[in-house]
Amino acid sequence: MTDSSQVQIRRLMAADAPLFREIRLEALQGAPEAFGSTFEQERSQSLAQLEEVLAKADVFGAFHEHDLVGMAGYRTQAGAKQAHKGFLWGMYVRSSARGTGVAQALVEAVLDHARQRVELVQLSVVSENETAQRLYRRCGFVAYGHEVHSLKQDGRYYDEVLMAVALDPRN
C-alpha cells in the first residue's frame, strides 16, 4: 500500500520512457475502455518515440521510491480561440496506490501546472467509472455533457461524461 505523503509528483522526462511505457501499457491492458488509444497501438511504439513524446508533452508521474505508481497527462487546446482551455488525459493509478490520495495529488499537480497556462481544464471519463467521477468532483470538476458511444472496445460502446473546472489563477 502506497501512502500519498511518501509519493513525489513530478513531470516525466525522456529518461522516464521505460517506466512510462510500462505503466501506460498496464493501463491500456487493464482498463482498455477508459482510453482512446489501444494496447496494440502503443506497444508498437519504440522507446525513442516515447522519449520524444515525454520531451514534448506535459505528463506527470507519481513516484513511490523508484516506482511509478500513477500518471496523468495535460495539454493545452490548439488554436487561438481554444488556447484558454486545457485537457487532462491518460489518468491512471496502479491498484497498489488506489484509495491513498495519489490520484487526487496527480490531478492537483496537473491543475497547478494548468493554472499558469489556461483558464479552464476539461476531461472525459467513462460514464460507468463512478470512482473517477467522484475524484474529479472533489477536485472541482463539474459535468457539462454526456457523449454517447464515445469509445468502442471489443464491440461494446462506452459513453463518456464531459467535465470541466474553471481555474482561479491566484490559487
Describe the structure in your own words:
The relative contact order is 0.16. A hairpin with an 8-residue loop joins strand 3 and strand 4 (85-93). A 7-stranded mixed β-sheet has the order 1-2-3-4-5-7-6, with helices on both faces. The chain has 171 residues and is α+β, with helices and mostly antiparallel strands. It contains 5 helices and 7 strands, in the order E-H-H-H-E-E-E-H-E-H-E-E. It has helices at 17-30, 39-43, 47-56, 102-115, 130-138; strands at 7-11, 58-64, 67-76, 85-93, 120-126, 142-153, 156-166. 30% of the residues lie in helices and 36% in strands. The model has no long low-confidence stretch (mean pLDDT 93). The chain is globular.
List the helices and strands and how they pair.
Layout: E1 7-11, H1 17-30, H2 39-43, H3 47-56, E2 58-64, E3 67-76, E4 85-93, H4 102-115, E5 120-126, H5 130-138, E6 142-153, E7 156-166
Parallel strand pairs: 4-5
Antiparallel strand pairs: 1-2, 2-3, 3-4, 5-7, 6-7
Helix pairs in contact: 1-3
Short description:
The chain is an alpha+beta fold. It contains 5 helices and 7 strands; from the N terminus they run βαααβββαβαββ. It has helices at residues 17-30, 39-43, 47-56, 102-115, 130-138, and strands spanning 7-11, 58-64, 67-76, 85-93, 120-126, 142-153, 156-166.
